[in-house]
Amino acid sequence: MAECHPVGFQWVSEAKAKGAKIIHIDPRFTRTSAIADLHVPIRMGTDIAFLGGLIKYVLDNDLYFKEYVVAYTNAAALVGEDFVDAEDLDGLFSGFDPETGQYDESSWQYEGAEQVAAAGQRSPGQPGYSGTYEATTEGDEEETGEADDPQRAAEQDASDEDPSVKASDRGQAAGSGGPSIPGKPKRDETLQHPRTVFQVLKRHFARYTPEMVAEVTGIEPEVFEQVAKWVTSNSNRERTTAWVYSVGWTQHSVGAQYIRTASILQALLGNMGRPGGGIMALRGHASIQGSTDVPTLFNILPGYLPMPHALQHHTLADYVASSAGKAGFWGNMDAYMTSLLKAWFGDAAQPENDFGFDWLPKINGDHSSYRTIADMIAGKVHGYFLVGENPSVGHPNGKMNRFGLANLDWLVVRDLQMIESATFWKEGPEIESGEMAPETIGTEVFFMPAATHVEKEGTFTQTQRLLQWREKAVEPPMDARSDLWFFFHLGRLLRERLAGSTDPKDQPLLNLTWDYPTIGETQDPDAEAVLREINGVGPDGKALSSYTEMKADGSTSGGCWIYTGVYADEVNQAARRKSHREQGPVASEWGWAWPANRRMLYNRASADPEGKPWSERKRYVWWDEESGRWTGVDTPDFEATKRPDYQPPEGAKAQDAISGVDPFIMQGDGKAWLYAPAGLTDGPMPTHYEPAESVVENALYGTQSNPTIERIAGPWNRENPSMSEVFPFQVTTYRLTEHHTAGGMSRTLPYLSELQPEFFVEVSPELAELRGLTNGEFATLVSARSAIEAKVLVTERIRPIKLRSGQVVHQIGMPYHWSYAGLSTGDNANDLLGIVLDANTHIQEDKVSTADIIPGRRPRGPELLDFVEGYRMRAGVKSGRVGINGREPDEDPSKMEEAGA
Amino acid sequence: MKTWLDAWPVFRQLTGSDPLGRGHAARSKATEQTVSRTATADRVAKSVCPYCAVGCGQRVFVKDEQIVQIEGDPDSPISRGRLCPKGSASKQLVTSPTRVTTVKYRRPYATDWEDLDLDTAMEMIADRVLAAREKGWQDEDAGKRVNRTMGVASLGGATLDNEENYLMKKLYSAMGAVQIENQARI
Fold this sequence. Notes:
The structure holds two protein chains of two kinds. By secondary structure, chain A is α/β, with parallel strands linked by helices. Helix content of chain A is 26%, strand content 12%.
């Protein structure tokens, strides 16, 4: 955190000055470790074993926050009899299909919640209909269809024949909507029933002993004990503990489950929804949170609404059916979606045409970034926009990314500087190696200069969901334009070209609301007008104040329901700049946080079930009996007048089905989940698996790595075998304080390039001795993808991990900022890495992989390819030789000639 | 009366009210006349740092329609005026001499860039979007209605404004493109 979010780290330093204990868990010793009370070096890729050990420690020693756990988590819920734990299946949960590598999650359900289809696919009276339980994730429904509806099963079989359509598509639903569960699972509040979530959890983590933690992670039992004592003694009525993570947790083949493990621990300790608690995702880019909320992501629409799916969302009724009976605020999805369609299609969106729902394109598989790159190489994608992104450097397996770009018809790059993704066709490493040549690359490239953050106005959403408006300081120079300008005018041109078309596929473009006011000579669209559309408008034409005002009848509009309120009272709330010196610590009048300007989510949990603060020291939001309202220092994340003793009447829906003691109002049961009966592709509880590329055998189970890992096969993406003598060392990547991601915004700046002038790798003195590496000299790193060179930094900051088995694991650290362009240059760390994905998120595992390291510089030209091929052969990996521009080597040579013509 | 001796710091130190030479005695004429760029700026825009997601407040100082300095905003409850090395260097992001500010165009199989007029480039891109959309259009996939194109894909960085992301998702969805991605996945 001190390295990559230095200014945010001031608050950690301040907490330390006030007596907080700071623990830093990281394979490397960094500036954060220097400030911390304790640095815990961990073997990379083993955090679930470590966190699982803490969960066991909490359960074994009765250190959980009992009242909180019983009232606010699903600990008391009963799991169905069919569930079989990974403990009993050697690392697999029940429902695994080895053919597809996917789970059928039906056996993970709570007791009494048999799998049934979404309400839209089934009507009352039909078998399987249930008024209280609606399946929501796509996989649920398809599996159900296959199981007990012959017609749907036949359709499913048909679609299975196309490899681009997967039988189970739950991976695409992850992160959208809320996973569905029965409204009221059976409960045993004594937590004694053997099938309560609490007891299931206890059994699941029974083997995560301090000794096992040491065996897997390399953390000595005494150190583990110290961490466990500090964490647990600091988590109670009077005190709270926070966890902070970043891509060190997400970029793994079990990334989503890393976060789940922390969530379980925090829920057990009563650290969620309370001041000083929580799990904080420190995100790495100025508006990466905003890019998720108002997504340019394939599987979601703004506000985490799922993209319509070809297999289940034929109509708006189908689409909203899954949520119709759902408890919690997802129960109003119909209002959010209808408002979105009204924002996009205006008067053309009418009840008769389903508000234009059918105009939205449908997904039916993984259409995420890496899959798309593979499709480019296969010639299936023709045009590509890169808008402030440099995949040639910033994405793992740079070579595969460049091959994708080389097989397009056209590429538009919008950036400030001439980044590598714009110049691959003449300067990329594959030109030197002979795998590409400008004369063979047919990609037409447009470099469109972009405006900087001070040359346009608009909002960033930072890592705490806070929207902050930026004023425009100056006009952008020459042809440089904002991305708002580019997409507005591109849309305008497309609509002009299609005007008058009667082709059904052109109707969505023609019916789009696209009349934003423009400003100045360059006709930049008014960003405030766009923000107001995102906020939404009521029947009176005035800006909405809250998403609770949204209606499903088409009388309201709003482009992103969770952002409704950012333009409340016709005021740009994100532009508020009341100094912190003039307001309290919550600083509610600086910018605007979604939802409803709440600065802490689920903050009803900061009060006990009766609505009183758990302690005076930790008071935040509480029930005021006199005024009959929730009150406190923040906007309560609860309906303001819902009494703590409120019990939902029979048949209650949406938020009305959430009782007065259920703080987690976005969950169908209002509870924090210690066990996830739905919603994850790889198990209801986290389990330690080794990374896809590991030098260690899984000590816990026979199942070595996550059985649901998503792979993208091809000669350009070979995988290093685990426990291979050819690739004997673990590698991780990271950022430096002085550089930013793929370097386009830092390697081009003189100050920053001077501060960190070249690519280097960090190795321990032990590894340096083992491999004959010298500080300040070059070394070559090799994987099944490529070989790169870097200056060696021999340092005790990164140390070998000795496991209890006696095995010594050497770890190598690489910053990933460099490539050939800019003021400071070097080989590209990401060229070393392959692409394997967490099936929940389609995020790559680049925080841990394997490689070899040898002294000296790498071979040049075609010799580099022979060198890497030699490693692949020795490791028993298939050939990585490719044809021209990365196409299949056996591709018809006449085609290649044609390409060169 | 001013003498040449007044220009000698030691003289000022020995004869003036600053015997330790740590105040005005040590100041030269050039120093006296130096004024910070923040003091002479025409205006100040309130902004936010474009690097990581902490969201530090920035004050952007403008003189003669040029950025002359970017500093931390002391009012921000997040950053309290502080900036890290990247945020502190962000003026160079705007004023970098290697910044490309005109359109560049590379023809298929060409070995170098050409210049291109912005309006022409926009027209050409619009033509190519429609052609690629048509080429990759699917009414159905595996017997199911998908009404989409697999011909056009997009990948955005996470320094895009919310308003920009919104227009992108809206426009792409309306043209039927689904392979719309962002650094937020990476």
